[in-house]
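STRUCTURE:
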């Protein structure tokens, strides 16, 4: 609404270009100083004096003097007695800067795992996330995603979802043991994935799925079934990411975001309605299987 790029000034430079350069200068002004950002963030909460601002930001006295002068020049802060507070303009800048930093922090967290997330599914967006925990295999220790799933299984009272989630023995042992005690589960599997699980320990798996706590569904056409699984642990969502070509476990991404929980529940309910219930191995195992 502020740009008129087709209207050049006397020097042949468009107004839009000038405004864009000015905007980038202001962004650089903030990004180049953690102390400026720190002062704005501290003053969102309450007016503070210079000593409190130094304590909050770690700035030296000369640095704080320059920071406060710069912010006053921009009319972002004002001084009342010994304390400083945000002006209306300063509050506008500080809150939007905070939102932008949160957005970039989230983007940074999911950047490396973005190729395996279900962004092909309708309604999925990075904007659905709030807090996020990303667990990836580390150098010399590739078990962090597996351990995160085990942790979530141990803590949950209800587990629902669809796709590839638990294929590792350590996850399966905890899951099926708890299914016989106090973990309620209702899960939609691709048939080939559940066949792998059944092959792991047919006796233990069949005992669990015949228990009232555990309901298994089979779906022949789950979306992205070679790339990720989505699981709801109580009011938490976990996305398990796999490499579609190698099958390697890449990461788990979990969050308590209400928006993502609602999105995952909607997809889960839709796929569950399309699936068929699993009763015994005859529902699944091919004639040439060893099971």
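SEQUENCE:
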């Amino acid at each position: 609404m502020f740009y008129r790029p087709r209207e050049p000034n006397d020097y042949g430079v468009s107004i839009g270009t000038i405004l864009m350069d000015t905007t980038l200068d202001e962004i650089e002004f903030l990004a180049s100083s953690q102390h400026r950002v720190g002062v704005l963030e501290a003053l969102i909460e309450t007016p503070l004096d210079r000593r409190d601002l130094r304590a909050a930001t770690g700035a030296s006295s000369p640095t704080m003097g320059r920071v406060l002068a710069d912010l006053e020049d921009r009319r972002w802060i004002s001084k009342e007695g010994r304390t400083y507070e945000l002006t209306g303009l300063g509050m506008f800048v500080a809150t939007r800067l905070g939102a932008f930093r949160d957005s970039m922090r989230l983007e940074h967290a999911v950047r490396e795992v973005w190729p395996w997330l279900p962004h092909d599914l309708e309604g999925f967006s990075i904007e659905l996330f709030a807090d996020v925990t990303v667990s990836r295999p580390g150098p010399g220790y590739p078990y962090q995603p597996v351990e995160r799933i085990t942790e979530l299984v141990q803590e949950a009272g209800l587990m629902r979802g669809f796709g590839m989630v638990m294929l590792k023995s350590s996850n399966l042992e905890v899951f099926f043991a708890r299914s016989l005690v106090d973990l309620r589960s209702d899960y939609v599997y691709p048939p080939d994935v559940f066949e792998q699980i059944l092959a792991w320990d047919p006796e233990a798996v069949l005992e669990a799925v015949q228990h009232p706590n555990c309901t298994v569904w089979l779906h022949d056409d789950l979306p992205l079934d070679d790339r990720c699984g989505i699981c709801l642990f109580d009011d938490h969502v976990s996305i398990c990411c796999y490499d579609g070509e190698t099958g390697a476990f890449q990461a788990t991404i979990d969050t308590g975001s209400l928006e993502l929980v609602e999105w995952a529940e909607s997809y889960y309910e839709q796929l569950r309605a399309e699936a068929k219930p699993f009763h015994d191995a005859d529902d699944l195992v091919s004639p040439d299987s060893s099971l």
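REMARK: The chain has two domains: 33-104, 117-283.
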